């Protein structure tokens, strides 16, 4: 009897332990740039528009809490949510898993793509605008960052000198 009870308890603990672990699929919930950071919350905006069947462009955007301290504005990341997504705009979620994609610096450059984006965002008047990145290019000691307002669809090109 004791053996059966011990075996049953062991199986229950194994099943419960397996159910509580988080698993994330191969495809992230959102991939994009960290456009803003407040405490442990980051605003991630996708650079790719989604087709919603009309003429308007829609750029996915999410405020995610519990972001690691080393994530910075300008980082290009893939983000998986822990739990669900509140579907306001921008959406709201909790960070489950993050992969960084752009901490490298091009040959002959002194600042990274992320640092160039940070400098560009410091230079634009953001008011209540939500921007997405259209392109970031490095050429001959300067960065060209093109930002797009997700509501008005107007673009702004910001030139960032490649110096620390």
Automatic annotation (TrEMBL):
It comes from the Bacteria. Gene3D superfamilies: Nucleic acid-binding proteins (2.40.50.140). InterPro entries: DUF3221, NA-bd_OB-fold. This is DUF3221 domain-containing protein.
